[in-house]
């Protein structure tokens, strides 16, 4: 025992770790049920149109909106009673004011750094100018496919797969384990697109390859999104990042190689530098203390001799 600081021991703890653990079977079952509910809601309509038809999109908007109302019931019903007494339900969902501004800005800027290479490629084509054009935004919000890809899909998916699932999983598993478990539901939930591709006449092999590729990158994104939610304790962080990633899509390497040699070298450096910078800054930029997050991620704590705790993120 160190008598100078009068402490007995040091350890890490979060609010969610101070309550009784919920059965792993219960949390996994709830997450599986929410995943099935979300995907099933997309196919309940007797509709002959493809997924991009306005009628299909509108009906799916309604379906996932209902799922967004139902999913929190799982979290509320199966969470630890002690946790519900310590944390307000809206905060458990990542809907809170403390640290909100930081949760809006820092993860978004961090993700822009990850996409530094593709963003620099876009600057070469001057396509970024359209974002300063009022008519672009006016037409975008009238385009139902744009709304689906940049608003409704990120909103519904992050709310169900992050805001409702993560707080449940975190009550049964460690934060890092939860970050790797929850995205599996998110990735598998995207495999259903193979049905749509086959319906449109695509051959099975091509549809399978595309769907497996989509499974891979949606799962990878899910790891990042789940990490942001657990570290920041905010729903807004993964939602905005999801919308941004949907806009960027996968990097267009073909366009990169069409550049002049010296530009290509500079752009490749941007790709590599952006990724390295993202890796180096990821932990520091998502420190829970920056976002006033005491709920999900462990904080460094000291237990004093009089049984009182002093904690920092």
UniProtKB/TrEMBL annotation:
It is a multi-pass membrane protein. GO terms for biological process: CAAX-box protein processing. InterPro entries: Rce1 (IPR039731), Rce1/LyrA-like_dom (IPR003675). It is found in: Endoplasmic reticulum membrane. Residues 144-248 form the CAAX prenyl protease 2/Lysostaphin resistance protein A-like domain. One of its GO terms (cellular component) is endoplasmic reticulum membrane. Its EC number is 3.4.26.1. It catalyses: Hydrolyzes the peptide bond -P2-(S-farnesyl or geranylgeranyl)C-P1'-P2'-P3'-COOH where P1' and P2' are amino acids with aliphatic sidechains and P3' is any C-terminal residue. It comes from the Eukaryota. Keywords: Endoplasmic reticulum, Hydrolase, Membrane, Protease, Transmembrane, Transmembrane helix. The chain crosses the membrane at residues 25-45, 61-79, 99-121, 176-195, 207-229, 265-287. It holds the Pfam family Rce1-like. One of its GO terms (molecular function) is metalloendopeptidase activity. PANTHER family: CAAX PRENYL PROTEASE 2, PROTEASE U48 CAAX PRENYL PROTEASE RCE1. Belongs to the peptidase U48 family. This is CAAX prenyl protease 2. It comes from Glossina morsitans morsitans (Savannah tsetse fly).
């Amino acid at each position: 025992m160190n008598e100078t600081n009068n402490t007995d021991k040091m350890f890490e703890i979060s609010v969610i770790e101070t309550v009784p653990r919920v059965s792993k079977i219960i949390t996994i079952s709830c997450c599986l049920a929410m995943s099935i509910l979300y995907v099933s809601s997309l196919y309940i309509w007797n509709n002959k149109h493809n997924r991009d038809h306005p009628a299909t999109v509108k009906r799916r908007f309604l379906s996932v909106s209902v799922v967004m109302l139902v999913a929190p019931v799982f979290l509320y019903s199966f969470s630890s009673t002690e946790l519900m007494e310590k944390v307000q339900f809206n905060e458990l969902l990542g809907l809170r004011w403390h640290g909100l501004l930081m949760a809006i800005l820092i993860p978004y800027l961090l993700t822009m750094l990850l996409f530094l290479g593709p963003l620099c490629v876009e600057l070469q084509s001057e396509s970024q100018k359209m974002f300063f054009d009022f008519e672009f935004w006016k037409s975008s919000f009238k385009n139902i496919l744009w709304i689906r890809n940049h608003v409704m899909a990120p909103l519904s998916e992050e709310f169900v797969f992050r805001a409702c699932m993560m707080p449940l999983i975190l009550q049964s598993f460690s934060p890092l384990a939860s970050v790797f478990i929850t995205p599996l539901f998110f990735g598998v939930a995207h495999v259903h697109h193979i049905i749509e591709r086959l319906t449109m006449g695509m051959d099975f092999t091509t549809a399978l390859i595309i769907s497996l590729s989509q499974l891979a990158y949606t799962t990878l994104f899910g790891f990042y999104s789940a990490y942001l939610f657990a570290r920041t304790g905010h729903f807004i962080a993964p939602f905005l990042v999801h919308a941004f990633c949907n806009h960027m899509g996968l990097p267009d390497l073909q366009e990169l190689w069409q550049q002049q040699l010296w530009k290509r070298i500079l752009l490749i450096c941007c790709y590599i530098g952006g990724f390295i910078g993202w890796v180096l800054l990821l932990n520091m930029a998502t420190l829970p203390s920056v976002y006033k997050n005491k709920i999900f991620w462990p904080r460094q704590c000291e237990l004093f001799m009089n049984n009182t705790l002093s904690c920092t993120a």
